[in-house]
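Justification of computing resources. Each target in the renewal requires a structure prediction run like the one illustrated here; the chain below, 290 residues long, is used simply to show the kind of job we budget for.
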Amino acid sequence: MKLNSDQLNAFFEVAKRGSFSKAALSLALSQPALSLRIQKLEQQLKTSLFVRDSSGISMTDAGEKLLLHCQLRENIEQDILQDLKAQGSLARDSIQGIVRIAGFSTTMRSVLIPSLHELILKHPQIQLEAFIREMHELPAVLKRSEADFAISEGPITLGNVENILIGHEENVVIESKKIISGREDIYLDNDSEDQATFNFFKAQGNGKNKKFKRNYLDEGNAILDAVELGWGRSIQPRHLIEGRNNLRIVPGFKAIKVPIYLNYFKQPFYLKIHELVRDHIKTGFRRGLG
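Resulting structure tokens:
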């Protein structure tokens, strides 16, 4: 049984974007035409690929398996195209292509970018798309193939996903050396769903429930700037306060180590660019975080 390329492309686009309307716009198709391609593909496979409800769409088990096939197909095509373009070129050893990396705020600027700098210098044709998501959003981002790699606290527990421990962040309590009087019990977090402060005090293991208030700033560097101005304290990785001379670690609390993982779907074939990015992330994070 041979699968139709247009139908596979339609499925892949819907799976990546999580939306029929966005996929139709990307493929320059009407939504009925896109839906017809998906319907014909489902008829050929004799199974449903998507579950549609009031909250949106999600993939069935069959859809997730087909997504892996589409990813492999795309990787092989990209590798062949790169080899063909390189034939007869002086830049035969140059690596090209797009790599998409999703992660959380405390590692993207301070660890990821330094980890990939040497690779970008050596292969300037690489296109890098790195974006920040909330921790609870990362599994869905990886599952929908919106990213090739996801960097997370703890492993992402999806089927057929490789989880590699690449280091530990060491969370501590930080404050300004000139904290505003009366704001010692105010802790700055991203938003109400941010559990960093609660998890930190829970992990202290002294059986005491610390009372504190929370303020929200929704951006990592804004939190650090506000702490530096004395607006309150915050739970942050130790490596983020390096070079910020107005900040200090509050004594009396034990540092909590948080494991950081690199996650990606297992494939029988990987693009050279993906192998290089994976290896540079592993090396850079282990060097930067220990």
